[in-house]
Amino acid sequence: MNTGTTAINIILADDHELFRDGFRSLINKYPRINMIAEAANGEQLIQLTERYLPDVILTDIVMPVMGGIEATCHISKKFPQVGIIALSMYNEEHFLKDMMEAGAKGHLIKNAGKEEIIKAIEAVNKNTSYYCRDTELKIAKLLSKESHTLKNGITEKDKKIIVLICQQVSNKKIGEIFFQSFRTIEGYRKRIMRKTKTANPVALTIFALKNNIIYLDEEGKVQPFQKS
Questions:
Q1: Range of the domain at 172
Q2: Does the residue 162 lie in any domain?
């Protein structure tokens, strides 16, 4: 993780040379991000990580020789400070839960826009989660059965606000519900993001699902989790 003002050093792993070429061309336009190496499979990724120790890795899930899941598991155990973002095609989403459990802190669809790619790299570099908006509901359903004990100082009021954020209720409306100003709710929102180490509402939704703050009903709508 790079917390200074220097460039964020990244490694890209993907077995398709054309994809790596296109990604390199995009990243080269951003001086804040420095692509220091690229790998064609998981074994190469591990070797390059050990050699260069990047801040962030973007890795394809399905690759020859060794896939992204096995490589991510190895790297996250040996170098936990390295942020890993999973890259996938739409038909590879069934691997996402395994990637998250292996240690990936984010996910992007391969055709994600340049702004979202940069946001994801910067978020994961700061040790916060980032999930592609295109797969929010699908990832959420994959992880919704996971249950964890909260150890982040989350208050009951935080939980209520988290539910509303996950339901896409505006800060203005949340303020009306709690009889507080727009600015006060903005402050609550920022503190909640810090407590949960999430970078956007998608990541917060997944956090809330995994920690039994919300659940998805049969129509896929966010509902507050009620203890029986």
A1: 156-224
A2: yes
